[in-house]
Design a protein that fits this description.
Protein name: Riboflavin kinase
Number of domains: 1
Number of strands: 6
CATH topology: Elongation Factor Tu (Ef-tu), domain 3
InterPro entries: Riboflavin_kinase, Riboflavin_kinase_bac/euk, Riboflavin_kinase_dom_sf
Order of helices and strands: EEHEEEEHH
Radius of gyration: 14 Å
CATH architecture: Beta Barrel
Helix content: 10-25%
Enzyme class: transferase
Organism: Vombatus ursinus (Common wombat)
Strand order of the largest sheet: 1-6-3-4-5-2
Number of helices: 3
GO molecular function: ATP binding; metal ion binding; riboflavin kinase activity
């Protein structure tokens, strides 16, 4: 994937309200402006990388870019699941991410249980990949320590 790694940041906004409630897998959502600024030839699908909320620690993450076929979305979204337990919501905070790899294309599922199972598999794959040296080094990237105003999207 020619656009990876891809560096991106934006304010966390409320999503569709189903990540935590229906799936038990909370996600942080970017506003439309961030989604619209993604490279137009960045494939929809499931990716992995690193994420940081505000000036906090950098954690592993898995994210979905696309239309969420199971839910038949009419708007493209970027939903980040940070592989870490947060004590409280962080709407309005700045989320900085580095997308380092691709797992699979997005697809439809026959049931919510099949969707949850696939997401759990994606999380495990992300954890494995992010332990590899070529991905691990990006956890320490200076991007996570830049002033928020310096980089909005892109490299």
């Amino acid at each position: 994937m020619k656009h990876l790694p891809y560096f991106c940041r934006g304010k966390v906004v409320r999503g569709f309200g189903r990540g935590s409630k229906q799936l038990g897998i909370p996600t942080a959502n970017f506003p439309e402006q961030v989604v619209d600024n993604l490279p137009c030839d960045l494939s929809t699908g499931i990716y992995y990388g690193w994420a940081c909320v505000g000036n906090g620690d950098v954690h592993k993450m898995v994210l979905s870019i696309g239309w969420n076929p199971y839910y038949k979305n009419t708007k493209k979204s970027v939903e980040t699941h940070i592989i870490h337990t947060f004590e409280e919501d962080f709407y309005g905070e700045i989320l900085s991410i580095v997308i380092t790899g691709y797992i699979r294309p997005e697809k439809n599922f026959s049931s919510i249980d099949a969707l949850i199972s696939a997401i759990q598999d994606d999380i495990e794959e992300a954890k494995r990949q992010l332990d590899l040296p070529e991905h691990l080094k990006l956890k320490e990237d200076n991007f996570f320590h830049m002033p928020e105003s310096q980089v909005m999207n892109g490299h």
